[in-house]
Amino acid sequence: MNVNRIAPEEAKELLDRSQDYIYLDVRTVPEFDAGHVPGAKNIPLMMSAMGRMQMNPDFVDIVESNFGKEQKLIVGCQKGGRSLKAAELLQQAGFKNVTDMRGGFGGETDEAGHLVFPGWAPRGLPVSQQSAPQDRYESLARAGGK
Description:
- The N and C termini lie far apart (about 30 Å).
- The chain has one domain: Oxidized Rhodanese, domain 1.
- β8 and β9 (about 115-120) form a beta hairpin.
- The chain is α/β, with parallel strands linked by helices.
- Helix content is about 30%, strand content about 25%.
- It has helices spanning about 10-15, 30-35, 60-65, 80-90, 135-145, and strands at about 5, 20-25, 40, 45-50, 50-55, 70-75, 100, 105-110, 115-120.
- The longest helix is centred in the middle third of the chain and has 12 residues, at about 80-90.
- It is built from five helices and nine strands.
């Protein structure tokens, strides 16, 4: 199963053009709070537990209980790795309309840390530090029964 991947400008165009799309930010809560795509929903793929990052065992269930498997989702993270993994997990769980935003919020880097594919923020696209309570992980997890 191949995940459809799009550039940040394409993601912005889809989000601007249609209310049918939701931007799902799979970064941690602190990463989300530092700046995100305006209107994004935050459900972390990875969580800090005992000083280490671990998979969020409730990720797929929370996404499904809040949005359903037919929802058009654009998934993004910081550099593109977590969102691609999240998109694959969602597709495997039966989600039909999942797209990964390549480069994430900050952009893909090489082994030396050089930016090789700019993400949302480095391209000068709108960034917000504000979020509605219902867009935050605490509310989405609660709505999902977790």
